[in-house]
Amino acid sequence: MSKLAWRRTWFQVHKWIGLILAILIVPISLSGAALVWHDALDRVVNPARFATSGTTLLGPDAYTAAAEPALKPGERIAQLAMPEHDGPVVVSAAAAPAPGARPQGGPPQRTAIYLDPPTARVLDVASSRAGLVRFLHVLHGSLQVPGVGRTIVGWIGVAMMVSCFTGLWLWWPTVGRWARGLRWRRHRNTDTNLHYLMGFWVALPLFILSLTGAWISFPAFFAGLTGQGGPQRGPDRGGMMRAQPLARPAQSVATVLREAQPLAGGATLRSIAWPTDKSPDWTVTFAGGGAPLSIKVADDTGTATPAAAGAGGPQGGVARLMRRIHDGDGMGIVWQVVIFIGGILPAVLAITGIIMWWRARGWKAELAAKQRAKA
Protein backbone atom coordinates (compact mmCIF):
# COMPACT_ATOMS: atom_id res chain seq x y z
CA MET A 1 0.00 0.00 0.00
CA SER A 2 1.37 3.42 -0.96
CA LYS A 3 1.95 6.24 1.50
CA LEU A 4 -1.03 8.13 0.04
CA ALA A 5 -3.26 5.08 0.42
CA TRP A 6 -2.15 4.66 4.04
CA ARG A 7 -2.90 8.31 4.67
CA ARG A 8 -6.40 7.98 3.24
CA THR A 9 -7.02 4.87 5.35
CA TRP A 10 -5.83 6.47 8.58
CA PHE A 11 -7.85 9.58 7.77
CA GLN A 12 -11.05 7.54 7.55
CA VAL A 13 -10.24 5.67 10.78
CA HIS A 14 -9.41 8.91 12.60
CA LYS A 15 -12.47 10.71 11.26
CA TRP A 16 -15.00 8.05 12.16
CA ILE A 17 -13.55 7.42 15.61
CA GLY A 18 -13.94 11.12 16.31
CA LEU A 19 -17.43 11.44 14.83
CA ILE A 20 -18.90 8.28 16.37
CA LEU A 21 -17.37 8.77 19.82
CA ALA A 22 -17.50 12.58 20.06
CA ILE A 23 -20.70 12.63 22.11
CA LEU A 24 -19.07 10.23 24.62
CA ILE A 25 -15.55 11.67 24.56
CA VAL A 26 -16.70 15.14 25.63
CA PRO A 27 -18.31 14.13 28.99
CA ILE A 28 -15.55 11.61 29.77
CA SER A 29 -12.73 14.08 29.11
CA LEU A 30 -14.33 17.07 30.85
CA SER A 31 -15.31 15.06 33.93
CA GLY A 32 -11.77 13.65 34.07
CA ALA A 33 -10.33 17.16 33.94
CA ALA A 34 -12.58 18.27 36.81
CA LEU A 35 -11.71 15.22 38.93
CA VAL A 36 -8.00 16.08 38.87
CA TRP A 37 -8.98 18.63 41.53
CA HIS A 38 -11.66 16.49 43.21
CA ASP A 39 -10.61 17.44 46.76
CA ALA A 40 -10.73 21.16 46.03
CA LEU A 41 -14.00 20.73 44.12
CA ASP A 42 -15.52 18.84 47.06
CA ARG A 43 -14.56 21.69 49.39
CA VAL A 44 -16.25 24.22 47.12
CA VAL A 45 -19.55 22.37 46.68
CA ASN A 46 -19.69 20.95 50.23
CA PRO A 47 -18.18 23.60 52.53
CA ALA A 48 -20.06 22.39 55.64
CA ARG A 49 -18.22 19.06 55.84
CA PHE A 50 -14.85 20.85 55.78
CA ALA A 51 -15.70 23.44 58.45
CA THR A 52 -13.30 21.82 60.94
CA SER A 53 -12.09 23.56 64.08
CA GLY A 54 -8.54 22.20 64.07
CA THR A 55 -6.33 19.18 63.40
CA THR A 56 -6.12 17.65 66.89
CA LEU A 57 -7.24 14.02 66.76
CA LEU A 58 -9.23 11.96 69.25
CA GLY A 59 -9.28 8.19 69.55
CA PRO A 60 -11.17 6.24 66.85
CA ASP A 61 -13.68 4.96 69.40
CA ALA A 62 -14.71 8.58 70.14
CA TYR A 63 -15.57 9.09 66.46
CA THR A 64 -17.57 5.88 66.16
CA ALA A 65 -19.53 6.80 69.29
CA ALA A 66 -20.28 10.25 67.87
CA ALA A 67 -21.35 8.80 64.49
CA GLU A 68 -23.76 6.20 65.85
CA PRO A 69 -26.61 8.65 66.65
CA ALA A 70 -26.52 9.83 63.02
CA LEU A 71 -27.03 6.31 61.64
CA LYS A 72 -30.35 5.31 60.14
CA PRO A 73 -32.16 2.20 61.42
CA GLY A 74 -30.42 -0.93 60.17
CA GLU A 75 -27.15 0.80 59.26
CA ARG A 76 -23.84 -0.52 60.57
CA ILE A 77 -20.45 1.17 60.64
CA ALA A 78 -18.22 -0.21 57.89
CA GLN A 79 -15.14 2.03 57.91
CA LEU A 80 -13.49 4.96 59.64
CA ALA A 81 -11.09 7.18 57.67
CA MET A 82 -8.76 9.65 59.36
CA PRO A 83 -7.92 12.97 57.68
CA GLU A 84 -4.60 13.35 55.89
CA HIS A 85 -4.40 17.13 56.32
CA ASP A 86 -7.05 19.51 57.67
CA GLY A 87 -10.11 17.62 56.47
CA PRO A 88 -12.80 15.84 58.48
CA VAL A 89 -12.87 12.35 59.92
CA VAL A 90 -15.23 10.23 57.81
CA VAL A 91 -17.25 7.31 59.18
CA SER A 92 -18.94 5.16 56.50
CA ALA A 93 -21.98 3.04 57.29
CA ALA A 94 -23.71 0.32 55.27
CA ALA A 95 -27.40 -0.48 55.29
CA ALA A 96 -28.56 -4.08 55.39
CA PRO A 97 -30.29 -5.04 52.10
CA ALA A 98 -34.04 -5.51 52.17
CA PRO A 99 -35.17 -9.15 52.27
CA GLY A 100 -35.40 -10.54 48.75
CA ALA A 101 -33.80 -7.46 47.15
CA ARG A 102 -31.61 -8.11 44.11
CA PRO A 103 -28.05 -6.77 44.29
CA GLN A 104 -27.48 -3.67 42.17
CA GLY A 105 -24.48 -3.07 39.96
CA GLY A 106 -21.65 -0.86 41.07
CA PRO A 107 -20.54 0.04 44.58
CA PRO A 108 -23.29 -0.30 47.19
CA GLN A 109 -24.76 2.81 48.77
CA ARG A 110 -23.07 4.02 51.93
CA THR A 111 -23.87 6.78 54.38
CA ALA A 112 -20.91 9.06 55.12
CA ILE A 113 -20.79 10.92 58.44
CA TYR A 114 -18.29 13.79 58.48
CA LEU A 115 -16.88 14.65 61.91
CA ASP A 116 -14.83 17.53 63.30
CA PRO A 117 -11.45 15.99 64.34
CA PRO A 118 -10.93 17.88 67.66
CA THR A 119 -14.54 17.61 68.91
CA ALA A 120 -16.13 14.67 67.03
CA ARG A 121 -19.03 17.01 66.21
CA VAL A 122 -21.10 15.89 63.21
CA LEU A 123 -20.47 18.29 60.31
CA ASP A 124 -22.49 16.62 57.56
CA VAL A 125 -24.28 13.39 56.68
CA ALA A 126 -24.50 12.38 53.02
CA SER A 127 -25.13 9.40 50.78
CA SER A 128 -22.14 7.99 48.90
CA ARG A 129 -24.19 8.16 45.70
CA ALA A 130 -25.15 11.82 46.07
CA GLY A 131 -23.33 15.03 45.21
CA LEU A 132 -21.54 16.55 42.24
CA VAL A 133 -18.16 14.90 42.85
CA ARG A 134 -19.73 11.43 43.05
CA PHE A 135 -21.72 12.15 39.87
CA LEU A 136 -18.53 13.10 38.04
CA HIS A 137 -16.74 9.96 39.25
CA VAL A 138 -19.52 7.70 37.96
CA LEU A 139 -19.81 9.68 34.71
CA HIS A 140 -16.08 9.38 34.07
CA GLY A 141 -15.84 5.72 35.03
CA SER A 142 -19.03 4.30 33.52
CA LEU A 143 -20.93 7.11 31.75
CA GLN A 144 -23.66 6.63 34.39
CA VAL A 145 -24.55 3.35 32.62
CA PRO A 146 -25.02 0.48 35.12
CA GLY A 147 -23.37 -2.84 34.36
CA VAL A 148 -21.69 -2.34 30.99
CA GLY A 149 -20.67 1.30 31.42
CA ARG A 150 -17.17 0.48 32.64
CA THR A 151 -16.60 -1.77 29.61
CA ILE A 152 -17.84 0.94 27.24
CA VAL A 153 -15.42 3.45 28.76
CA GLY A 154 -12.59 0.91 28.45
CA TRP A 155 -13.22 0.43 24.73
CA ILE A 156 -13.41 4.19 24.27
CA GLY A 157 -9.93 4.31 25.81
CA VAL A 158 -8.72 1.74 23.24
CA ALA A 159 -10.30 3.77 20.42
CA MET A 160 -8.62 6.93 21.73
CA MET A 161 -5.21 5.23 21.60
CA VAL A 162 -5.84 4.42 17.93
CA SER A 163 -7.02 7.99 17.38
CA CYS A 164 -3.79 9.36 18.89
CA PHE A 165 -1.69 7.21 16.55
CA THR A 166 -3.67 8.06 13.42
CA GLY A 167 -3.82 11.72 14.39
CA LEU A 168 -0.03 11.93 14.60
CA TRP A 169 0.23 10.20 11.21
CA LEU A 170 -2.10 12.78 9.66
CA TRP A 171 -0.38 15.66 11.46
CA TRP A 172 3.02 14.74 9.99
CA PRO A 173 3.71 17.08 7.04
CA THR A 174 3.71 15.38 3.65
CA VAL A 175 6.30 17.83 2.32
CA GLY A 176 9.39 19.14 4.08
CA ARG A 177 10.65 18.59 7.61
CA TRP A 178 8.44 17.57 10.51
CA ALA A 179 8.94 20.98 12.15
CA ARG A 180 6.66 22.45 9.48
CA GLY A 181 3.81 20.79 11.33
CA LEU A 182 4.35 23.11 14.32
CA ARG A 183 3.35 26.15 12.31
CA TRP A 184 0.07 27.81 13.25
CA ARG A 185 -1.21 28.70 9.79
CA ARG A 186 -1.36 25.31 8.12
CA HIS A 187 -4.92 26.07 7.00
CA ARG A 188 -7.07 29.13 6.35
CA ASN A 189 -9.59 28.16 9.07
CA THR A 190 -8.86 28.77 12.75
CA ASP A 191 -10.61 25.61 13.94
CA THR A 192 -8.50 23.45 11.62
CA ASN A 193 -5.29 25.06 12.85
CA LEU A 194 -6.42 24.47 16.44
CA HIS A 195 -7.13 20.82 15.64
CA TYR A 196 -3.70 20.25 14.06
CA LEU A 197 -1.65 22.04 16.71
CA MET A 198 -3.48 20.96 19.86
CA GLY A 199 -3.73 17.41 18.56
CA PHE A 200 0.05 17.20 18.29
CA TRP A 201 0.78 18.51 21.79
CA VAL A 202 -1.87 16.41 23.53
CA ALA A 203 -1.22 13.17 21.60
CA LEU A 204 1.31 11.62 23.99
CA PRO A 205 -0.42 12.59 27.28
CA LEU A 206 -3.77 11.52 25.83
CA PHE A 207 -2.31 8.17 24.75
CA ILE A 208 -1.02 7.60 28.30
CA LEU A 209 -4.37 8.58 29.86
CA SER A 210 -6.25 6.37 27.39
CA LEU A 211 -3.94 3.43 28.10
CA THR A 212 -4.23 3.77 31.87
CA GLY A 213 -8.00 4.23 31.57
CA ALA A 214 -8.31 1.03 29.54
CA TRP A 215 -6.04 -0.70 32.09
CA ILE A 216 -8.40 0.30 34.91
CA SER A 217 -11.41 -0.92 32.92
CA PHE A 218 -9.86 -4.27 31.93
CA PRO A 219 -7.55 -5.21 34.85
CA ALA A 220 -7.66 -8.98 34.22
CA PHE A 221 -6.61 -8.61 30.56
CA PHE A 222 -3.66 -6.36 31.33
CA ALA A 223 -2.65 -8.52 34.28
CA GLY A 224 -2.23 -11.37 31.80
CA LEU A 225 -0.11 -9.21 29.49
CA THR A 226 2.23 -8.26 32.32
CA GLY A 227 2.51 -11.85 33.54
CA GLN A 228 0.86 -11.03 36.85
CA GLY A 229 -2.48 -12.66 36.25
CA GLY A 230 -1.60 -16.17 37.33
CA PRO A 231 -4.02 -19.01 37.81
CA GLN A 232 -4.93 -17.95 41.32
CA ARG A 233 -7.91 -15.66 41.36
CA GLY A 234 -8.29 -12.88 43.93
CA PRO A 235 -11.45 -12.36 45.93
CA ASP A 236 -14.61 -11.33 44.15
CA ARG A 237 -14.26 -7.55 44.24
CA GLY A 238 -17.95 -6.92 43.66
CA GLY A 239 -18.91 -9.40 46.37
CA MET A 240 -16.44 -7.90 48.82
CA MET A 241 -17.80 -4.40 48.16
CA ARG A 242 -21.33 -5.60 48.91
CA ALA A 243 -20.28 -7.43 52.09
CA GLN A 244 -22.20 -6.47 55.22
CA PRO A 245 -20.35 -5.32 58.37
CA LEU A 246 -20.89 -7.53 61.40
CA ALA A 247 -23.64 -6.28 63.69
CA ARG A 248 -21.70 -7.03 66.90
CA PRO A 249 -17.95 -7.56 66.36
CA ALA A 250 -16.20 -9.44 69.14
CA GLN A 251 -13.36 -6.89 69.36
CA SER A 252 -13.72 -3.20 70.14
CA VAL A 253 -12.17 -0.48 67.99
CA ALA A 254 -9.73 0.43 70.77
CA THR A 255 -8.59 -3.20 71.13
CA VAL A 256 -8.10 -3.61 67.39
CA LEU A 257 -5.98 -0.47 67.17
CA ARG A 258 -3.94 -1.47 70.22
CA GLU A 259 -3.12 -4.84 68.64
CA ALA A 260 -2.28 -3.38 65.21
CA GLN A 261 -0.09 -0.44 66.22
CA PRO A 262 3.00 -2.46 67.30
CA LEU A 263 3.22 -3.90 63.76
CA ALA A 264 2.96 -0.46 62.14
CA GLY A 265 6.26 0.84 63.51
CA GLY A 266 4.89 4.23 64.53
CA ALA A 267 3.20 4.93 61.17
CA THR A 268 0.17 7.22 61.07
CA LEU A 269 -3.28 5.65 61.19
CA ARG A 270 -5.26 6.15 58.00
CA SER A 271 -8.34 3.93 58.23
CA ILE A 272 -10.07 1.05 60.01
CA ALA A 273 -12.40 -1.31 58.14
CA TRP A 274 -14.86 -3.42 60.15
CA PRO A 275 -15.13 -7.23 59.75
CA THR A 276 -17.90 -8.41 57.43
CA ASP A 277 -19.87 -11.51 56.56
CA LYS A 278 -17.31 -12.10 53.78
CA SER A 279 -14.14 -11.44 55.77
CA PRO A 280 -14.02 -11.94 59.57
CA ASP A 281 -10.96 -9.68 59.96
CA TRP A 282 -10.58 -6.02 60.80
CA THR A 283 -8.30 -4.16 58.36
CA VAL A 284 -6.23 -1.34 59.86
CA THR A 285 -4.34 0.78 57.34
CA PHE A 286 -1.37 2.99 58.16
CA ALA A 287 0.50 5.50 56.02
CA GLY A 288 3.67 3.82 54.74
CA GLY A 289 6.74 5.28 53.08
CA GLY A 290 5.38 4.18 49.70
CA ALA A 291 2.32 1.95 49.54
CA PRO A 292 -0.01 1.95 52.56
CA LEU A 293 0.65 -0.66 55.24
CA SER A 294 -2.34 -2.88 56.08
CA ILE A 295 -2.70 -4.93 59.25
CA LYS A 296 -5.32 -7.68 59.63
CA VAL A 297 -6.80 -8.26 63.09
CA ALA A 298 -8.86 -11.42 63.56
CA ASP A 299 -12.19 -10.55 65.15
CA ASP A 300 -12.45 -13.86 67.02
CA THR A 301 -8.98 -13.94 68.59
CA GLY A 302 -7.72 -10.35 68.30
CA THR A 303 -4.50 -11.59 66.67
CA ALA A 304 -2.82 -9.01 64.42
CA THR A 305 -0.85 -9.99 61.30
CA PRO A 306 0.47 -7.95 58.36
CA ALA A 307 -1.71 -8.24 55.26
CA ALA A 308 -0.23 -10.43 52.53
CA ALA A 309 1.69 -8.55 49.84
CA GLY A 310 -0.42 -8.03 46.75
CA ALA A 311 -3.65 -8.54 48.64
CA GLY A 312 -5.09 -5.55 46.88
CA GLY A 313 -5.41 -7.40 43.57
CA PRO A 314 -3.67 -9.61 41.06
CA GLN A 315 -1.67 -6.78 39.57
CA GLY A 316 -0.36 -5.40 42.82
CA GLY A 317 1.74 -2.31 42.41
CA VAL A 318 1.30 -2.13 38.63
CA ALA A 319 -2.45 -1.59 38.92
CA ARG A 320 -1.93 1.03 41.63
CA LEU A 321 0.64 2.81 39.48
CA MET A 322 -1.72 2.87 36.48
CA ARG A 323 -4.45 4.39 38.61
CA ARG A 324 -2.10 6.99 40.12
CA ILE A 325 -0.94 8.00 36.64
CA HIS A 326 -4.54 8.24 35.44
CA ASP A 327 -5.86 10.14 38.48
CA GLY A 328 -2.73 12.16 39.23
CA ASP A 329 -2.86 11.31 42.95
CA GLY A 330 0.56 11.87 44.47
CA MET A 331 2.12 12.54 41.04
CA GLY A 332 2.93 16.21 41.56
CA ILE A 333 1.38 19.41 40.30
CA VAL A 334 3.09 19.26 36.87
CA TRP A 335 1.49 15.94 35.93
CA GLN A 336 -1.84 17.02 37.41
CA VAL A 337 -1.81 20.10 35.15
CA VAL A 338 -0.94 17.86 32.19
CA ILE A 339 -3.90 15.59 33.03
CA PHE A 340 -6.18 18.60 33.37
CA ILE A 341 -5.16 19.93 29.97
CA GLY A 342 -5.37 16.39 28.60
CA GLY A 343 -9.01 16.36 29.69
CA ILE A 344 -9.93 19.75 28.22
CA LEU A 345 -8.27 19.39 24.81
CA PRO A 346 -10.00 16.15 23.66
CA ALA A 347 -13.33 17.97 24.01
CA VAL A 348 -11.96 20.84 21.92
CA LEU A 349 -10.58 18.36 19.35
CA ALA A 350 -13.96 16.62 19.14
CA ILE A 351 -15.77 19.92 18.53
CA THR A 352 -13.25 21.23 15.97
CA GLY A 353 -13.25 17.83 14.25
CA ILE A 354 -17.03 17.95 13.84
CA ILE A 355 -16.78 21.50 12.44
CA MET A 356 -14.14 20.36 9.93
CA TRP A 357 -16.27 17.38 8.86
CA TRP A 358 -19.39 19.51 8.47
CA ARG A 359 -17.54 22.11 6.40
CA ALA A 360 -16.10 19.37 4.19
CA ARG A 361 -19.61 18.04 3.59
CA GLY A 362 -20.63 21.50 2.44
CA TRP A 363 -17.88 22.04 -0.10
CA LYS A 364 -18.17 18.47 -1.38
CA ALA A 365 -21.88 19.02 -1.96
CA GLU A 366 -21.15 22.29 -3.80
CA LEU A 367 -18.53 20.57 -5.94
CA ALA A 368 -20.91 17.75 -6.82
CA ALA A 369 -23.61 20.26 -7.76
CA LYS A 370 -21.23 22.14 -10.08
CA GLN A 371 -20.19 18.88 -11.73
CA ARG A 372 -23.83 17.92 -12.31
CA ALA A 373 -24.54 21.38 -13.75
CA LYS A 374 -21.66 21.03 -16.25
CA ALA A 375 -22.85 17.58 -17.23
Automatic annotation (TrEMBL):
It holds the Pfam family PepSY_TM. The keyword tRNA processing does not apply. The chain crosses the membrane at residues 16-37, 152-172, 193-216, 333-358. Keywords: Membrane, Transmembrane, Transmembrane helix. The keyword Transmembrane helix applies. InterPro entries: PepSY-ass_TM. This is PepSY-associated TM helix domain-containing protein. It comes from Sphingomonas aurea.
